Amino acid sequence: MATVPAAAAIRTTPLLLVAVLFGAVAAFLASQALWSLTALAVVVAAAVLAGGVWLTGRKAEQEL
Fold first, then answer.
1. CB 47 within 8 A of CB 3
2. Structural domain of residue 38, as residue ranges?
3. Any stretches that span the bilayer, and where are they (predicted)?
4. Coil, helix or strand for 2?
5. Domain assignment of residue 17, yes or no
6. Per the count of CB atoms within 10 A, which of 1, 7, 16, 19 is most buried?
7. Neighbouring C-beta atoms of residue 43, cutoff 10 Å
8. Does an H or E element contain 57, and which?
9. Is position 32 within any domain?
10. Is 36 a domain residue?
């Protein structure tokens, strides 16, 4: 199992915070029954998380 270096984790922490923020926005929009905006917020949150995972993996490969 590969471990993520602390430096890579620090670089991706802002991305995780943005994803959590968009998740909270999606939950709020869902509570207001604004489904199209909810879907958009979920897609953005998923894209940010995927980008963070990709970035973490790429940085870990370069440091090996």
1. no
2. 12-42
3. 12-31, 37-57
4. coil
5. yes
6. 19
7. 12
8. helix 35-63
9. yes
10. yes
